[in-house]
Each structure stands twice: as C-alpha cells, then as structure tokens.
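Anyone up for a design puzzle?
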C-alpha cells in the first residue's frame, strides 16, 4: 500500500496535516520529538560509559583469590 505513494502523495499528506494541526502544534511536536531523541542518545551513552567503567573496575583487580585471603 505505501509503496505507491510518490512525491505528490507525500505533499498532499503534509498539507492535510498542516491544515489539521496548524504550524504551531507541528513545530512544538517536532521539538518534543527532538528532545526525546536527544534524551535517548544521552541515555545510551551513559549506559555505555557505565558498562565501560564496570569493565575497567573488574580489570583493575587481578589479584588471585588465594592472595586476597592472605592479606
């Protein structure tokens, strides 16, 4: 169904959406979408940094278990 939509069809859909919602509502909606994407990327980066930190912390402690008990 969506394979047959060309440029004229997309323009018609854009005009209908613009008429129904108005320019202000669409711009605020796109702003919220942008904030959501930014927050998602920030969360992904923070999660990756946390995993990297955990890996680095685990790599620091290379003392065998037998040696830990003696200290």
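Challenge accepted. My sequence:
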């Amino acid at each position: 169904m969506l394979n047959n939509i060309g440029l004229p069809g997309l323009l018609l859909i854009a005009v209908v959406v613009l008429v129904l919602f108005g320019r202000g509502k669409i711009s605020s909606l796109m702003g919220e979408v942008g904030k959501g994407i930014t927050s998602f990327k920030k969360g992904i980066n923070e999660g990756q940094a946390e995993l990297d930190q955990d890996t680095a912390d685990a790599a620091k402690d290379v003392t065998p278990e037998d040696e830990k008990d003696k200290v």
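A detail worth pointing out: The chain has a mean pLDDT of 83.
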